[in-house]
Amino acid sequence: MAGDRLPRKVMDAKKLASLLRGGPGGPLVIDSRSFVEYNSWHVLSSVNICCSKLVKRRLQQGKVTIAELIQPAARGQVEATEPQDVVVYDQSTRDASVLAADSFLSILLSKLDGCFDSVAILTGGFATFSSCFPGLCEGKPAALLPMSLSQPCLPVPSVGLTRILPHLYLGSQKDVLNKDLMTQNGISYVLNASNSCPKPDFICESRFMRIPVNDSYCEKLLP
């Protein structure tokens, strides 16, 4: 791994805040936490590569590339010919040298080293950055979100589409009926889990499948 050859480059919260305030042309900021944590609250303009076991395994096996994992809006930065700086953060890591070689962050950093000229880890992760610069974060702090989702129809604002895998998104009825949003993310097939959500007019019948499920905490999802 690159981290075994040279000490891992680091960036502190103050430096990242300065770069973000500098406007366009700054580094590509990658959030390596789970998609739930990312959608709750994240660094302004960051993109998420979620730390799931599946993504980790596919990265290790070389079955998925960094470009495939990056959200479409930021994919141009991965494929750009000019040098590109990258800053990666997790929740609270302060010292990359103590990371286990088989940890998701270590594997991700190693793969990023092969794609970019400069890859740094954010010292203290999102915990430190969000406490110092909450105005440079997007979303809602976890403390403001409901502690339980075990009841139907909670009045939680939609956070938009959530990318679970490179070609798999989770979204609401509002999201799936938004043609521009669907086109922007390259979504052309819909698997609908509801009894009543309408089929989008721009999705043909052969690309729409409904699994009838009631929007209720009593519904048995396993079958």
Structure summary:
This protein has 223 residues and is α/β, with parallel strands linked by helices. Helices cover 29% and strands 17% of the residues.
Written description of the protein model:
The structure is a single chain. This protein has 223 residues and is α/β, with parallel strands linked by helices. It is 29% helix and 17% strand. It has 10 helices and 11 strands. It has helices spanning 2-5, 13-21, 35-40, 53-60, 66-69, 75-79, 104-113, 125-132, 173-176, 179-184; strands spanning 9-11, 28-31, 41-43, 47-48, 85-89, 118-122, 137-139, 162-165, 168-170, 190-192, 208-210. Strands 1-6-5-2-4 form a 5-stranded parallel beta sheet, sandwiched between helices. It has a two-stranded antiparallel sheet with strand order 3-7. Helix 4 crosses helix 7 (104-113). The chain is elongated, with a radius of gyration of 19 Å. The relative contact order is 0.15. One of its GO terms (molecular function) is MAP kinase tyrosine phosphatase activity. Keywords: Hydrolase, Protein phosphatase. This is Rhodanese domain-containing protein.
Spell out the key features of this protein.
223 residues, alpha/beta, two-stranded antiparallel sheet, 29% helix, elongated, disordered N terminus, hydrolase, Rhodanese-like_dom, Rhodanese-like_dom_sf
SSE order and pairing:
Blueprint: H1 2-5, E1 9-11, H2 13-21, E2 28-31, H3 35-40, E3 41-43, E4 47-48, H4 53-60, H5 66-69, H6 75-79, E5 85-89, H7 104-113, E6 118-122, H8 125-132, E7 137-139, E8 162-165, E9 168-170, H9 173-176, H10 179-184, E10 190-192, E11 208-210
Parallel strand pairs: 1-6, 2-4, 2-5, 5-6, 10-11
Antiparallel strand pairs: 3-7, 8-9
